């Protein structure tokens, strides 16, 4: 037995736009113009609504499944809490729509239009972006999913920064010193994640980060250590201080984990520098393998 109060046709809907818990299914009416429509906890199933215009309306906590909305226009429509399942929204236009708590599964989307209707609240924006990313992953559109992952993390940084600042009464009532400290730590980690390798999506940033580390530790070796290395020469081993280019070379061989090369550190400062850089080199290799695997897996 249906849990909906009544079943209407699209024609009846245009005549009586305010309805609660209704079901409309298995119809096709292109180029409809629906205004002041109010649906709540209703179900739209297997409808063909190409080139339809829906404006100044509310379709809340409703389920829209297998609906064909290609080239449809939604103007000032409140979709709060509604579920879109296997709908065709490609080339649909969204103008000033409310998509808070909306969800999408296996839908063809016009992402550019939907992105223009993201909620202003960072936490709700992140929630909607995650829904959109799950939808794109379900369709096998990895490129769009990766773009959305970047937007998700960037938006989470905005939200974490607002928590740290607690400049509004909303956050001041909910955040204490410890929660703000945790939020700041998460913000720093996301910033580092972005800078080091673009959330795992930009391998070129990873090599840029490796180059920065290599040069930085080369400078540490050159300026921070003295005559405390054994250098390998044809006429025997000698205790030396590394010049600039030798320092860069030593940093390179150590970071790439191929060993000390021609120069072996003897004192605490140089050994500590080499140990830290070697550890960073191992972490770099882990990131590199992970990034390459992501590319191959696509």
Relative helix content: 40-55%
**CATH fold topology of the largest domain:** Pectate Lyase C-like
- At the first level of CATH, the class of the largest domain is Mainly Beta
| Class inferred from helices and paired strands | alpha/beta
Strand content: 15-25%
DSSP helical segment count: 9
Entry summary:
This protein has 298 residues and is of the alpha/beta class.
Can you describe this structure?
With 298 residues, the chain is of the alpha/beta class. The chain folds into 3 domains: 1-117, E3 ubiquitin-protein ligase SopA (Pectate Lyase C-like, 3 Solenoid); 120-195, no CATH class; 203-297, Helix Hairpins (Orthogonal Bundle). Helix content is 48%, strand content 22%. It contains 9 helices and 17 strands. The protein has helices at 10-15, 111-115, 122-139, 142-165, 169-174, 177-197, 203-224, 244-255, 268-297, and strands at 6-7, 18-20, 22-28, 33-35, 38-40, 43-48, 53-60, 63-65, 73-78, 83-85, 88-89, 93-95, 103-105, 108-109, 229-233, 236-240, 263-265. The strands form 4 sheets. A 6-stranded parallel sheet has the order 1-3-6-8-10-13. A hairpin with a 2-residue loop joins strand 15 and strand 16. Helix 3 (122-139) runs antiparallel to helix 4 (142-165) and helix 4 (142-165) runs antiparallel to helix 6. The longest helix is centred in the last third of the chain and has 30 residues, at 268-297. The chain is elongated and about 95 Å long. The protein starts with 5 loop residues before the first strand and ends with a helix. The relative contact order is 0.06.
